[in-house]
Write a sequence for this structure.
């Protein structure tokens, strides 16, 4: 009996790695010579991050440190949604949040790509913020994964529940 194999395409953030990157960034901002006595800090409230600095350049530099730490911890920068530095009183602020999930519109784009250019045995099904891909052939699923990885998406993709 040949049963269907499947996998899910998702866009998820590893929150533990984000917390680790935040802690490393905070430590580096507090110890680095060029950030000493500049009022630069990074704060976390819930799922949002706030970078504050006396100058716009310092705020951007702190954001770059945060980005570097995220990349080193294998968190895609496509998840990061940061604002432009905004002047609030005497302090420049940058707010950062993380985007998760694949929107229905983006899931339809991936499904269309797989339907048009992928193997014919593949079926796709949108389930909330994930896209389930099924086929009788595991080789076709491997081809589908390669096609999605090769695509240039504005969101990060991961593959889960491969069975």
């Amino acid at each position: 009996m040949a049963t269907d194999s499947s996998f899910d395409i998702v866009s998820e953030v590893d929150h533990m790695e984000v917390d680790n990157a935040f802690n490393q960034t905070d430590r580096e901002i507090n110890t680095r010579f060029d950030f000493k006595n500049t009022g630069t800090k990074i704060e976390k409230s819930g799922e949002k991050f706030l970078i504050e600095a006396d100058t716009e350049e310092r705020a951007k530099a702190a954001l770059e440190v945060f980005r570097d730490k995220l990349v080193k911890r294998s968190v895609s920068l496509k998840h990061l949604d940061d604002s432009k530095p905004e002047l609030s009183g005497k302090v420049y602020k940058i707010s950062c949040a993380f985007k998760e999930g694949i929107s229905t519109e983006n899931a339809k784009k991936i499904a269309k790509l797989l339907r048009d250019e992928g193997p014919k045995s593949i079926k796709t099904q949108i389930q909330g913020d994930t896209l389930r891909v099924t086929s009788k052939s595991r080789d076709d699923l491997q081809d589908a994964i390669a096609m999605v990885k090769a695509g240039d998406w504005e969101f990060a993709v991961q593959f889960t529940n491969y069975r």
